[in-house]
Design a protein that fits this description.
Blueprint lengths: L6 E6 L6 H5 L10 E4 L4 E5 L2 E5 L8 H4 L20 H11 L3 E5 L12 H18 L7 E6 L5 H14 L3 E3 L16 H10 L3 E4 L12 H11 L11 H12 L2 H4 L5 E4 L6 H14 L15 H8 E5 L3 H5 L1 H4 L4 E3 L13 H8 L5 H16 L4
Parallel strand pairs: 1-5, 5-6, 6-7, 7-8, 8-9, 9-10, 10-11
Antiparallel strand pairs: 2-3, 3-4
Length: 380
């Protein structure tokens, strides 16, 4: 049997320094995200926030050589060209044995910290226009997910619909919209309907927490430091915010009303899912219904909706591979996280061989390519 066609469901671009200073609307140009160049490293800054350095695209593969090479700061001149030039990305994909990639931003992931909602809207629009053009190099192999701000649901729906017209393959919303804006609320009904109608999966990537008031205070800065310790590879609790959001969706009947809506978890691993599914079903069947968690119109259990409407993208999670049938074979996809330093590039084939040792070829084909191809509409 031939080897499975591999599609990475979670890869990245590295935004060029002039993306927003050139691409954002004139009304926001003086506040646009820009790069501060200094001797130690180049940093993205916006609206008084120091967001991140360029290390998201400079240290790919270093962890396989020597951890001492990995840095906290780096310069854009050191970023791998495949991070921002599509033709170079395709070369790296070929070298690593990857047929297709679903690409996400790098700096864009932390833009959810921006408190000014209208500025964030403009940031999203500029990125979505740029990334749609990036994918034109080979739209059969490179597909991108739009950034969508849902502070104003109507504005978010309009941008989702524009993203669909641009040819983008998904729409990324906050993994944690905040206590007052959880996804169980009726105000999101137009968003669910629009995503279902456009056949765009809604994706929740790690790190996309929506800013709260006072996000720049010393207390919030300390909270962000603690939150880093909840990120891979530190602990399985990295999935906490995705679990909260998807539980709100499931128990409020979102998938009962919108059965074709797809929601995807990115970089939260997947081996937590069997316990989560069991716990949801127990809560639903062994406790009385409440106004927040009514009974579904159908006879489905929470785990049924999870297995039909949720997908999990993982990078290196051998336990998830071992528990694939408990999680659901249609739920699992793999991502290389290119070109981030914790990613598998340029040794993806080697890492996959270790993780999938002894796994039947049919199962490999689903997890490594077919599931992502179905969700994001790749033609394999």
């Amino acid at each position: 049997m031939t080897k499975p066609v591999i599609v990475s469901s979670d890869s990245h671009v590295v935004e060029p320094p002039d993306l927003w200073t050139k691409g954002i609307e004139k009304a926001y140009r003086d506040r646009a995200p820009r790069v501060d160049y200094n001797d130690e490293g180049d940093w993205w800054v916006c609206d008084g926030l120091w967001l991140m350095s360029m290390t998201g695209g400079t240290d790919a593969g270093f962890r396989f050589e020597s951890l001492e090479k990995m840095r906290r700061e780096a310069k854009f001149s050191e970023v791998v060209k495949g991070g921002y030039i599509a033709s170079e990305k395709l070369k790296d994909m070929d070298a690593d044995g990857i047929y297709g990639e679903v690409v996400y931003p790098t700096t864009g992931l932390v833009m959810w910290r921006l408190e000014d909602s209208l500025l964030f809207d403009a940031v999203c629009r500029a990125y979505n226009t740029w990334i749609a053009d990036f994918c034109k190099e080979d739209p059969k192999r490179i597909k991108a997910v739009a950034m969508i701000n849902t502070d104003d649901v109507a504005a978010g729906v309009a941008e989702l619909q524009r993203a669909a017209k641009l040819g983008l393959a998904g729409a990324m919303i906050s993994v944690n919209p905040g206590d007052r804006d959880q996804y169980s609320q009726p105000k999101y009904e137009p968003l669910w309907a629009a995503a279902q109608d456009a056949q765009l999966p809604l994706t929740l990537h790690i790190g996309t927490h929506r800013a709260r008031q006072g996000a720049n205070s010393p207390i919030r800065i300390r909270e962000r430091a603690r939150n880093m310790m909840s990120s891979p590879p530190f602990t399985s609790t990295a999935a906490h915010w995705f679990q909260v959001s998807v539980a709100h969706m499931i128990f409020s009947g979102v998938f009962d009303r919108f059965p074709k809506l797809q929601v995807v978890s990115l970089e939260h691993r997947a081996s937590w899912a069997p316990h989560f599914l069991t716990a949801m079903d127990y809560e639903y069947t062994q406790r009385p219904p409440s106004p927040d968690w009514p009974r579904f119109r159908s006879a489905s259990l929470p785990s049924d909706f999870f297995r039909t409407n949720i997908a999990l993208s993982f990078q290196e999670d051998v336990l998830a591979v071992q528990q694939r049938h408990l999680i659901g074979m249609d739920c699992l996809t793999w991502g290389d996280d290119y070109p981030h330093p914790e990613g598998t590039f340029p040794r993806s084939r080697e890492r996959l061989a270790l993780m999938f040792a002894g796994v039947p070829e049919a199962d490999k084909a689903k997890i490594l390519g077919a599931n992502a191809a179905r969700i994001y509409r790749f033609a394999l």
